[in-house]
Design goal:
The protein is α/β, with parallel strands linked by helices and about 230 residues long. It is built from ten helices and seven strands. A three-stranded parallel beta sheet has the order 1-2-5. α1 links the parallel β1 (about 1-5) and β2 (about 25-30).
Length: about 230
């Protein structure tokens, strides 16, 4: 099965490949930035159910992943932003240097600079693939295996569903990253991130600034109520 398209196509084709004859070879050819840096390299395949996202699925790893940054030339800006949210997440989890580089490269990425895109996508894929290879089926201890890749997704998926999918996946993840940063600060888990070249800066403030630079939503409180 050759999955040519964005994340939805990759997940659906991957699930079909996993089920047919109890599993046949799969090639992922992602055409969105989000799929290139995230869905195509994780091995998770599945579909949504009316009550929630990704509830019917399995693990089925591709034999080949073919990523061509040239296809991003026609991607709408809003979809570019969704991919950047996942790239920022990889930086927040594994590499402060990558976190800063994603923010610094935002204008070049929105300008569809192929050289910058290729370099940044490769770095992000490398970070995710390294994590997945250590715990391919998410069986690792909480906080130590690939479950960390769900950063921003717990609340993000809920917001995505609640919005009737008016929020794109990456936009919902961006708001989920703000929520995770806020909660982490309140639990005093962010001391390593507080020290910056500008001095002591809270993680939520840093996350909001980064997401703003990436043209992603940050107004988490607009989605929260006391009910």
């Amino acid at each position: 099965v050759v999955a040519l398209g964005g994340g939805v196509i990759g997940d659906l084709a991957g699930l079909a490949a996993a089920l047919f004859m109890r599993g046949i070879a799969l090639m992922q050819c992602p055409t969105s930035l989000l799929a290139q840096v995230d869905a195509s390299v994780g091995g998770k395949v599945g579909i949504d159910l009316p009550v929630g996202k990704n509830l019917l699925g399995t693990f089925h790893f591709p034999t080949v992943v073919l990523i061509d940054p040239e296809v991003i030339q026609t991607l709408p800006e809003r979809e570019l932003g969704c991919g950047l949210a996942e790239m920022l997440k990889h930086g927040a989890l594994f590499s402060r240097e990558h976190f800063n580089q994603v923010v610094a490269a935002a204008d070049d990425i929105y300008a569809r600079n192929t050289d910058v895109l290729a370099r940044m996508v490769a770095a992000s894929v490398g970070l995710k693939a390294a994590c997945v290879s250590r715990d391919p089926r998410e069986q690792g201890e909480a906080g130590k295996g690939r479950v960390v890749l769900n950063l921003g997704h717990t609340l993000g998926h809920a917001l995505e569903q609640m919005s009737g999918f008016e929020l794109r996946h990456g936009e919902a993840v961006a708001l989920g990253l703000v929520a995770a940063a806020r909660l982490s600060e309140r639990r005093e888990l962010t001391k390593d991130w507080a020290k910056t070249e500008e001095g002591e800066v809270g993680l939520e403030q840093q996350m909001r600034a980064a997401l703003t630079a990436l043209r992603l939503p940050t107004d988490l409180d607009a989605w929260l109520t006391d009910e």
